[in-house]
Amino acid sequence: MTETTELYDNLPELIKAALDVAATGLPVFPTNDKTPAWSNAELGVARGEGGYKIASTDPARVIELFSHRRATEIAVPMGEMSGLMCVDVDLQKGDHVHKWRDDNASWLLETRCHSTRSGGLHFLFKHIPGVRFPAQLAPGVDIKAGGTGYICWPGTPGYSLIGDVPLSKFPIDQLKSEGERGPLSLTSWNSATDHELIDKIRSAEDLYPALRSLSMRLPSRRGEDGLPLNRDTQVAVMHAIMADSEAASPTHTRHSDWLDRLSKVEDLVDSAIDKSGVTLTPDDIERLSAGEPFMDIAVRPIGPQQETTASDIEELVGEDDAEIEVMSAASLSVETLPPIEWLVDQMIPMGGTVSLGGTSNVGKTRWLAHLSICLAAGNTEAMGLPASTAASVLWCANEERVEDIKRRLKAASQHMGIASGADIVVRGKTEGMLRLIALNEIGTPEIDRESVAKIVGWCRAHAAQVVILDPYVTLSDAMDENSATSAAMLTKAFLLISSLTGAAVIHAHHTPKDRNKDNDWYRADSGAWRGSGAIYSALDCGFTLANWMPAGGEPRKRWKQKFLEDELGRFIVLDTGKIREGRPLVPVIYELVGEALPEGFEIGVCRVSSASEAENVLQHSGDDAYLAGELAYQICSVMGAGTHTIKDVHGKQLLGWPLTDGDVTAARYDRVKELFDGPVSSELGVVRATKKGRAWALEVTLD
Q1: CB-CB contact of 546 with 509 (8 Å)
Q2: Which segments of 208-279 does DSSP mark as H helices, in order?
Q3: What is this structure's pTM?
């Protein structure tokens, strides 16, 4: 038995079955109850880049994908990826479907067929490029021919091959006219009014063509404010319509159809938007994102834009000034305005929303541990930041256990010599993900009142003035980072917390992935926050944590070459990305180092460093024998300013000096010249190699 065979034999049955399917050339991906097992957040991809698009034939990738704990089914995408299309015949939906199958048996039985676990049939045909098929051929008969369509494949429990014949080509003639529509029912509601379509869905007479027709109309609709409906609003409208259907009841005979159609709402909306060519301006999105839900569908279903006259407006005009405040230059000149209250001067305002943006593994959580300890002690200067007042901290960590945070906090306090301070209250992931936005029973996002109330209660109980939420992407069950509306909903949750407690809210967020740029491209940049611009716009202050990189093309090239070999990524830099009122920070550079705890293990901490130290490490990366910066410090201290021969420096027998006792040979000269070929900085000054006559010397410049 070969090693490969043994490895295969030890794999779970589902993975082996998936590998067998992939070996036939069909791309596969895992699903659970026909829903992709991997979320976009888990994959680290934007909306629209996950789902069926991760399907693969590569054995290593297949094993990785199907190792997910939710993987229970083998799914194959239809369309170009597989070269297949499927006619899905749901026999369990009634005698009319059985009749349709019998009436069309002449061409259905000429191709490959699978049975499904629900008692239906999948008839497989060759994919036909460039042809747009209807989603439904008849009641209970669907076509999956591309786009987001996929089916479960034999190897999945409950699915089996029953018609082992070669694939045939779908008979296009079946869709052409014998009169108008041909023998297949292609019910269309394109000529119906919005109200007629909604009535069809409400009565469960039709659940898909009517829904599809509505989705195609929504991109051109406008809300009560006259603005186009954004994506999230369109989805909410469709969900509201479906929620009013009789089939929404679990006891209804078409409830399973209703559940299936409900799961396709977002795909219908996305498809309609793509085909409409309707785009929203940034101003449109900003205004929409700040508004309330579009409408109450029970009161006003979608339809043509209402005509508004001057008299309509006059009826609503009043003299209520409750929402506005009147001022003038004269009144402002005599009014004493309170100054901005800062927890950390020019960095974290009381009651503000602050974000720390950075790539994965750059050190955000480690840095937040330092911030928490320093805030609690009222000593943020210890980590190179402006002065602060002492403040209790509430830290909600959705990706770390309490024990993990404890170790980080202890290491940070020990490293900085902080032995006292206010309370730090930690809530870890073992208690479950803390969500601020949840999906209700019909899949519509709304603020999770219980979670927000918990945070407010914890803040009040422990007088917390800072709330850390880490990371941003885990805070919503309906997270769509590219949606301004989704970002606005989270912003509203942050504001509820800060307004009810007076605490500043700090969240950590990821940067966009851009492999074509240097990995510090987002330093102090508004583009450092992944997703919608509304995330950045809502911030009072924002800071970036990035890998330190030197300036200049050649130093950067050397940095990239030595990044992994010499662990140059241990130097990171904090910059100001946004400051609403105040002045940007001077960049602070940290070195990520290990701190040995009394328990006998090390935990990473952020040691305040400097650009000169990082530059020295880069300059002499790969030569561990020399501590160039330390040596430069000694030379500056012992020799003083001026030009000194290498022989003179050699005579001082400095610690770390690369030459051994005895004469200074030409070969050893070269080692010194290599060491100080570029300027080496220290706290006292700069040392560089220079030519003095025929001999080499070291030139010292003191700061």
Answers
A1: no
A2: 209-217, 231-243, 255-263, 265-276
A3: 0.50
